[in-house]
Amino acid sequence: MHLKKLHSLTLKTFIPPFVLTLFVSVFLFFLVQIVITYLDDFIGKGLSFIDLITLFFYAWLTIIPQCIPLAVLLGSIMCYGSLAENYELAAMKSSGLSLFQIIKPVFMFIIGLALLTFVFNNFILPVVNLKFSSLLYDIRQKKPSVNIKEGIFYNKLDNYSLRVGQKSKNKDTLKDIFIYDHSAKMGNVVQMYAKTGKITTTADSSAIVLVLKNGNRYEELNLQENIGKKKKTLSQLNYKELQVNLEVEDLKMKRTDEGQFKHGGEMMNVWQLDSVADSTKRLMNKRFIELNRQSKEYFYNRIAQKNREPDTIKAKNKNPIVVMDTFISKLNKEQKDKLIEGALNQVRSNASYIDGFINNFKNDSAEYNSYLIEWHKKIVVSFACIVLFFVGAPLGAIIKKGGLGLPVVVAVLFFLLYFILTDAFYVLAIDGTVAPWLGMWTPVFIFLPISVFLTYKAANDSALFDFGSYFGWIYKFKKKKT
Questions:
Q1: I need a surface site. Which of 92, 148, 166, 182 has the fewest CB within 10 A?
Q2: Is 150 a domain residue?
């Protein structure tokens, strides 16, 4: 019964800092990766509140898996640092509990969290990435909304140029309005002027509605007098009120079919990634087989076979250079020039084919690596949570500090190291310098011995920063030798 209460106390100490850290880290990553990166794509687009909230919601969901390892690391340091600082950890150990029994409830929670993270990465995150990428693409492709400035011609409306002398404070009442209509594709044949006007939009935002008051409308008309002769005349309309609809269909955000984005690795689960990676690998092997066939049947000796004499065909077992020299020596100058020109053309054709093969192979190889990287990425985060927990929990027990001071600094330093290693090896894996599995798992492999070392130190109540304990064997060896 007492053990269950201790486990409950430990979980209650761990969960609040974990949740707080997760929220703060997701928010910071959201600011850096989404707001700052795509801020220029949002400004001036006239996006609706629903579109922005939907995009930000998807962005938050995509960032959560990246921040879970940091939250585990910081939460475990703060949890066990607080227990050690308040001598609760010492009391547990004095009652006969080992470090592994103390961290067992949180460890089981981390195991469950790792499994949930994998389920999220494999089943939910691909759908979220698909919707986020599709919506972000549509927002970036959307044209800026109408922003008419005083005294400057606005030419971003198709078929119209608009100038406003003055706008009211609420910007719906305009003065000294000039409109040039180019919709006839014949220049400024329609011109409108008005002293005042009101500006609104239609219900579906497909057109700007201008209600002009006290103005004139001029239009040039082409009249056919005789065959081959045209005469221009001017039509003038004086009005007290005139409604003009300016079509702005291109300024509306158009949604793209999400199916166009389904081929990215981020939009697939592990089984789909396995399938497309296998298909890509088979395509690469097929290209190699085709290159080998082309080399044997098309690249080599084609010119020689076309021009070879019957007696040279019999000399199959001879040195091919000797055979070719013998064959060329029997040709006259015109035949030699023709043979050389044909050989050069053949070499150019072969070189072009090989260049195309190399480009295709590089693209296929990069695509194949990206699929494997995404496959490993969905799994490695779960193991990173476990490894970083065994870095944070013993580290908190050793430094014996809770709260938001030293634990935060230590956790951020460790996570920055992990983040830098992950990013560096990710780039190496993308470039094909290292294998995808090695690039994704190396940061975990580096932190694994660190976690084992820290856990050993905390379990034996060893002083982490007592350097004499590390080099004590040297003094013992010297003393024994003396």
A1: 166
A2: no
